[in-house]
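Lab notebook, bench 4. The sequencing result for the construct came back, and we need a structural model before the next group meeting so we can plan mutations. Quick request posted to the team channel:

Model the 3D structure of this chain.
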Amino acid sequence: MDELRCELSPLVYAELYRLLAADEARRDVLEERLAAIGYDHVWLGTAADAYNEYWEALLESTDADSVSSLALPRNEHALLATWILAGLRITGEDRELGTALAQNVLQRALTEVPGLTAPLPPDLSPVIVGWTLASIIGSPSYEWPVAPAVLPDDVNIRSAFIGFTHHVLVLEAMAEPWPEMMQTSTYWRGYGIAEALKPAMGEGSPAINELLTEARPLLPQYLSTQLNKHFSRFGPRRNALSHVTDDPRRERFVDVVTTTRGWEHLRLTVLGLTQFVCQEASRSLYDAEELPAALRNDPWGYLEREISTEWLT
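Done. Here's the predicted structure in token form:
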């Protein structure tokens, strides 16, 4: 299966760690999380400076056409950042931090990269979803979907979400109105992903309710309300699409296909499923008894060497 690659610019990591270093409200939680890998709070500033020096060292030979070549392909950069972010799950919603990160990167990139204009490429378009770092890979007019730094371990969930994401990208490349089945198929895939994320719930609708409950403390109120309203009808609509024949217990097929067309409707499905998958990924990192293999034995030791500027001087 084709993977989703979260490859971000060193500018993103510089701004992320700078924001975390300045976050006094989460300082105690961050210190405890960092101690688990042998680092202290000062390390956040050290990492921010190292990424920033690497970014600035390459700027002299960079312009709008080549800026994406600065993206760091090694997944451990994104994995380490997400592992740290996962420790903040207990502190509430993540959108404020994610918005600040995106705005800081946008402002600096437009100022520092000659000829660069918005919208920015994926490597300069970070987002935090469910306390998982991700890169926005959707077309500019849609902004979603995203490539998360980490996906759940279950191979079925990974494959299903990757397929869902690729399907949405295909839709974005097509002119609206989209063919009915190409859009409504997201109900079948979304229902299946929810079942797989919460197999103990037995079926999709209870699983969606459980996922919404887990999402609530991680989301701002307005977004939680939108997703609850959207997904409250997700299961019944999926059934109407599957069975077609009129049934007084559910919406009519013709009504569902009429009211579920276009990006504004699909957007909430994409947002919700991305939230569910990403919050599960960060939960797994938070609950894990052992560090991921890639983060054992001082991960910063080799990541720092990769972004060293000594060879440039």
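Residues 10-312 form one domain.
Will bring this to the meeting.
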